[in-house]
Amino acid sequence: MILFPPAKINLGLQIHSKRNDGFHEIETCMLPIPFYDILELTLSASFSFEQTGIKIPGTIGENLCEKAFYLMKSRYEIGNVRIHLRKQIPIGAGLGGGSSDAAHVLLALNELFSLKLDIEILCLLAAELGSDCPFFIRNEPQLAKGRGELLTPISLNLNGLYCVLFNPKIHVSTKEAYSGVSPRIPYKTVRELLSLPIEVWSALLQNDFEESVFKAHPKIAQLKSELEKTSACYVSMSGSGASVFALYTEEQDVPSSLKSAVLAKFYL
User: In CATH, what is the architecture of 162-267?
Assistant: First the structure.
């Protein structure tokens, strides 16, 4: 079985407060995008995991794909599989690639072994693996609250917008990003801001990670600044960084100085 776990971008990301359990209360809109890893699962006499493409740091058993398999194995009667992950979504990029891979392992195992688990059960399992994982089970635009696992479908009118996704080849850990954030209560929610014309998003629809991440990594701030000089109607860092995306009303040529940072270009 071959699956294509997608990346995501965040439209607005508000960090409201830090919880007693160490997590943060957030609100954000997550949107799946057509930029993918490649995941292959085949039945096997014993479990194995191998990875090609972009190198993933860590030791055996630490990858979220492996954790997803062992989680399912501990709860349900399933056989062994061989997992091969072709990694194309950068690590520490704010694009949710690892979470997407893990969620799609759950989806694949559910189908391969005819478990017939519904979406709600799969989302609960996914939440044990990571805050973003339930989003990739649903795999459609969602308003996310709590630590990111409380999801509500949201309708967005983005048809025809052209997105260019950039990565400055900097790794930003989520832990690092959260450590520099000062939580605050916004005057308007992400949902309220998304209902406004896209022309005002740049001034109002903010990613609260940007201030601290830009201080630690000026190159990301410079990338966003350069994109804001183009005809983009909205520019933002995705998640906790380091990727930045720009939305345009029509297809655009990328400035020559930024071409080396382009990850993907697509219509929404």
Answer: 2-Layer Sandwich (3.30)
